[in-house]
Specification:
Helix content: 40-55%
Number of strands: 5
Shape: globular
Number of helices: 12
Order of helices and strands: HHHEEEHEHEHHHHHHH
Structural class: alpha/beta
Largest sheet: 5 strands, mixed
Strand order of the largest sheet: 1-2-3-4-5
Radius of gyration: 25 Å
């Protein structure tokens, strides 16, 4: 049976597109529409899903065959809270009848048992009502279910941390309002880092930093115990950690800035003139600080090391692992 209400929604969006040329729909509808009218195929859909799941706390994501081939009733194997899950991706073009979506979900659900998993993450560009999501989640009550439906995915992609992902997969640039929101979010992150550093400094100032070994071990009668081992190596100071973090942050930001500059110069992307003027000034400060000869280009190994170091130092300062926002 055709869902008339949903079809009317789709027609309204199509009419809006035809009636306004290349004007971008506002209120987040452009993202919603481009996801629903997905025409990029399965491979990009699985890669987009993997990025979303990574940012949502899933780990050890192992795609099966994004380029085609038998996948053993799963598009990817993942872990969530230490348990084994499977991921299933369904991105047809246009809204499908719920019976079609449900049959696809039931088919993917078989992969949970076959792959010895505890749960399934179902990522789809389809609109699903609350009752429909509940229906899918209760098909097998022994299986944990996370459903990433059209509205949920669109909301994620319309948040600042996903703007780059949205550009890559939906060809959507940031508008002026989003650029302001993005830079505001970066300011908030820097403020959070500063607050964490302030707490760390305060804790260190009130703690014995000699890192002596426990008294019980210091009093050991073991003749082979070396007196010099009463002290651990002196750790890096907070100032050194912050300085290194800022250096890696600057260098990674500068490399991304060069990529954005290339896209702007080739007409692929546009940025508000005032915001871009500030970005150019920031880039010049980075050049003056480190010297252009020390700012790349980097080999794949060097780029990986640079990002790995930043991730590790940010973890020390209180961020989650793999926090590489610049």
């Amino acid at each position: 049976m055709i869902d008339v209400e949903r079809c009317n929604v789709c027609v309204k969006y199509v009419s809006y597109e035809k009636g306004s040329g290349t004007m971008r729909r506002n209120d987040g509808r452009e993202t919603w529409f481009r996801l629903l009218e997905w025409d990029k195929g399965q491979t990009p859909a699985e890669r987009l899903a993997a990025i979303i799941l990574t940012n949502e706390g899933f780990r050890n994501i192992d795609p099966s065959h994004p380029l085609g081939g038998k996948d053993g009733l799963k598009d990817m194997v993942i872990s969530y809270n230490g348990a084994r899950w499977v991921g299933a991706v369904y991105f047809p073009r246009g809204q499908q009848d719920f019976s079609v979506i449900k049959n696809k979900f039931i088919h993917d659900l078989e992969g949970v048992k076959k792959n010895g998993a505890n749960g399934i993450a179902f990522i789809t560009n389809q609109e699903l009502r609350l009752a429909e999501r509940k229906d899918l989640s209760e098909i097998d009550t022994n299986v944990d279910v996370q459903i990433y439906h059209l509205e949920r995915i669109a909301s994620l992609l319309n948040s600042p941390q996903y703007y780059g992902v949205r550009m890559e997969f939906l060809d959507m640039e940031m508008n002026k309002e989003e650029q302001l929101a993005f830079f505001a979010s970066q300011t908030d992150k820097m403020n959070n880092i500063e607050n964490v550093l302030a707490r760390l400094v305060s804790n260190i100032e009130n703690t014995d930093c000699k890192h002596r070994l426990p008294e019980k071990r210091r009093n050991t009668e073991d003749e082979e115990f070396d007196e010099d081992l009463k002290y651990f190596d002196e750790p890096r100071s907070i100032e050194e950690i912050v300085e290194a973090t800022e250096e890696f942050l600057d260098k990674i930001w500068f490399d991304r800035h060069l990529s954005l500059r290339y896209r702007i110069e080739t007409g692929v992307e546009t940025v508000d003139s005032e915001i871009w003027k500030g970005a150019l000034q920031s880039a010049q400060r980075v050049i003056e600080k480190y010297g252009e000869e020390n700012l790349g280009p980097y080999s794949d190994f060097e780029w990986g090391m640079l990002n790995g170091k930043l991730s590790a130092l940010r973890w020390v300062l209180g961020d989650e692992w793999d926090m590489l926002d610049t």
